[in-house]
Specification:
Layout: H1 7-21, H2 30-43, H3 49-58, H4 60-70, H5 81-95, E1 101-106, H6 112-123, E2 130-136, H7 139-147, E3 149-151, H8 155-164, E4 175-178, E5 181-184, H9 186-189, E6 192-196, E7 208-213, H10 222-235, E8 236-244, E9 259-261, E10 267-270
Parallel strand pairs: 1-2, 1-7, 2-6, 7-8
Antiparallel strand pairs: 3-5, 4-5, 8-10, 9-10
């Protein structure tokens, strides 16, 4: 019989994780979190909730697996090509005027979007004066992202995304094919800083011209979204840009009035 955690069990589990490890999942969307936890219990064949809870409380290594399974790491290079086209045409020409550019990819997952951004900056001849901070709650995916190695089988799809985003070069010039892997140029990676960062509990750590957090906030409830919007607002300089995912918006948030949306794109500029 398949196990399904109850609301009470979920409450106990999240309390354990917070008290033991400092990770706060209380304001994540309950339906999504419950579905992912049930899936993990089924995958790892726990016969009871008690045994699942015991393993989490007593095995810090298993916590890594828990985080990996309940946080979402689906991404691709130049995902939503029209979005990158808007960044290329409307945002980069503005931030290019700065003497030094800091960009934060919050919830970077395995790094595909960070490398996409680095390619845009290189093609605008401003990569040399840019620093890209790539963070995620999941240390395993941060480590993976820092390698700049992606499946070669996906390069045809990524190349098409790149062209649709306004790319004019041969996409394969940015990586070296080795067996079934695509290893991206060191020049791109040298302008990146990878680190774990928890949007729920960690504070602002720099001032940025552009912050990207795409398809992360849809898994948070409104209170946590507001908390993260405050964090981004504190981390963004005036006239800086905030970019979100296709189903995310700041329009109804407490910071919304201080931002102006770029056309219909999910990009906002901080105007005051």
């Amino acid at each position: 019989m398949e196990l399904n955690v109850t609301d009470k069990e979920m409450e106990v589990l999240l309390k354990d994780i917070f008290e033991q490890y400092g990770y706060d999942f209380n304001d994540y969307t309950k339906a999504s979190l419950t579905r992912r936890i049930n899936r993990l219990i089924a995958l790892d064949k726990f016969p009871s909730f008690a045994e699942f809870r015991f393993r989490l409380r007593n095995d810090p290594d298993y916590l890594k697996r828990f985080i990996e399974e309940v946080t979402v790491n689906v991404t691709e290079m130049f995902r939503d090509a029209f979005f990158y086209k808007a960044i290329r045409e409307h945002v980069i020409p503005v931030i290019a005027t700065k003497p030094f550019i800091r960009i934060w990819h919050a919830g970077c997952a395995t790094g595909e979007e960070v490398f996409s951004m680095a390619i845009l900056l290189k093609e605008a001849n401003i990569l040399h004066k840019s620093l890209l901070y790539a963070t995620d709650i999941n240390p395993n995916v941060v480590e993976q992202a820092g390698k700049g190695v992606f499946p070669l089988a996906r390069m045809k799809e990524y190349s098409q995304n790149y062209i649709e985003s306004g790319g004019k070069h041969d996409f394969s010039s940015y990586y070296t094919a080795q067996y079934d892997r695509a290893i991206f140029d060191r020049e791109l990676k040298e302008r990146m800083v990878f680190a774990t960062h928890n949007l729920v509990s960690d504070s602002s750590f720099n001032e940025f011209q552009l912050i990207l957090c795409r398809n992360v906030l849809i898994y948070f409830d409104k209170n946590l979204q507001d908390h993260v919007f405050t964090l981004f607002d504190e981390s963004l300089e005036t006239l800086g840009y905030l970019a979100l995912g296709a189903k995310e918006t700041i329009r109804f948030s407490h910071i919304g009035k201080r931002y102006s949306q770029l056309q219909k794109d999910k990009i906002w500029q901080k105007i005051k």
